[in-house]
């Protein structure tokens, strides 16, 4: 059974940093593109970042470029999102999701339960 | 970026009625080389992550009830729920994966009248 479990969320002051993690199990982690998607309270879904199977390709939404870094550790079946210079508008539930096999831009068939990041003084 | 616009923002129907949700993209998401529409639909219930319903505009994900169907091509797409059930109360999102950044519609809230 595919499982994605996020951790690392919490309350942080504006300008601060957080590192989110996603523990993957039940599939060959190194074979899939992985994604972070966020959802601000009461709002819709927003794609944040993608990473390819070996970590050599990374893409970000414009609003987080230069502040967030997506990475993965295939030996530990884990996905990460390093978030620096956090802003109140980054407040959201952050979901880890698995892409469809092979293709880079795809739908996401498996999602974690999400971890809440709150940026506030 | 491709802008995805859903309509209506919300709808309230009686149990058993047909629900129709529309999604329009600001440019075509049909990839001519493989004749596939790069469009997915998700269902999200309160407090839960999104659940994939449909991909390639009309391919139902395994385990999704056949009352859910997707149609459309190019820039105009529809998610239909044939025979609304109480458990279908949720917000529904379309998403294009034609290019980066992948983008979502704003969501359509479905309620029971």
Which characteristics define this entry?
heterodimer, A: 121 residues, mainly beta, 4-stranded antiparallel beta sheet, 11 strands, globular, B: 113 residues, 7-stranded mixed beta sheet, 13 strands
Major interchain interface with per-chain residue totals: A-B, 21 and 24 residues
Number of strands of chain B: 13
Largest sheet of chain A: 7 strands, mixed
Q: H/E order of the elements of chain B?
A: EEEEEEEEEEEEE
Helix share of residues of chain B?
under 10%
Mean pLDDT of chain B: 97
The number of helices of chain B is 0
Question: How many beta-strand segments of chain A?
Answer: 11
- Please report the distance between the alpha carbons of the first and last residues of chain A: 40 Å
Please summarize what this structure is.
The complex is a heterodimer of chains A (121) and B (113). With 121 residues, chain A is mainly β.
Plain-language structure description:
The complex is a heterodimer of chains A (121) and B (113). In chain A, a hairpin with a 4-residue loop joins strand 7 (68-73) and strand 8. The model of chain A has no long low-confidence stretch (mean pLDDT 96). In chain A, strands 2, 4, 5, 6, 9, 10 and 11 form a seven-stranded mixed β-sheet that branches. In chain A, strands 1-3-8-7 form a four-stranded antiparallel β-sheet, with no helix packed on it. Chain A has 121 residues and is mainly β. Helices cover 0% and strands 50% of the residues of chain A. Chain A has no helices and eleven strands. Chain A has strands at 3-7, 10-12, 18-25, 34-39, 45-51, 58-60, 68-73, 78-83, 92-99, 108-111, 115-119. Chain B has 113 residues and is an all-beta fold. Chain B contains no helices and 13 strands. In chain B, the strands form three sheets. In chain B, strands 2, 6, 7, 8, 11, 12 and 13 form a seven-stranded mixed β-sheet that branches. A four-stranded antiparallel β-sheet of chain B has the order 1-3-10-9, with no helix packed on it. Chain B is globular. Chain B starts with a strand and ends with a strand. The A-B interface holds A 37, 44-47, 50, 59, 61-62, 95, 97, 100, 105-109, 111-114 and B 38, 40, 42, 44, 48-52, 55, 61, 93, 95, 97-107.
């Amino acid at each position: 059974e595919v499982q994605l479990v996020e951790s690392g969320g919490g309350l942080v002051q504006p300008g601060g940093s957080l590192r989110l993690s996603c523990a993957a199990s039940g599939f060959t982690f190194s074979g899939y593109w992985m994604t972070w998607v966020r959802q601000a309270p009461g709002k819709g879904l927003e794609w944040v970042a993608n990473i390819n199977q070996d970590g050599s390709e990374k893409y970000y939404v414009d609003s987080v470029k230069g502040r967030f870094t997506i990475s993965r550790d295939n030996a530990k079946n884990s996905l990460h999102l390093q978030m620096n210079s956090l802003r109140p508008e980054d407040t959201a539930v952050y979901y880890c999701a698995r892409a469809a096999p092979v293709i880079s831009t795809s739908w996401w068939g498996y999602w974690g339960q999400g971890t809440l990041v709150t940026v506030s003084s | 970026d491709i802008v995805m616009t859903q309509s209506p923002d919300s709808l309230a129907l009686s149990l058993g009625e047909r629900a129709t949700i529309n999604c329009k993209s600001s440019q075509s998401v049909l990839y001519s080389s493989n004749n596939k529409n790069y469009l997915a639909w998700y269902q999200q219930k309160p407090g839960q992550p999104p659940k994939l319903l449909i991909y390639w505009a009309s391919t139902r994900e395994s385990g999704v009830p056949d009352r859910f169907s997707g149609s459309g091509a190019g820039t105009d797409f529809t998610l239909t729920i044939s025979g609304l059930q109480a458990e279908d109360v949720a917000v529904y999102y379309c998403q294009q994966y034609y290019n980066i950044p992948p983008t979502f519609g704003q969501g359509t809230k479905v309620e029971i009248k």
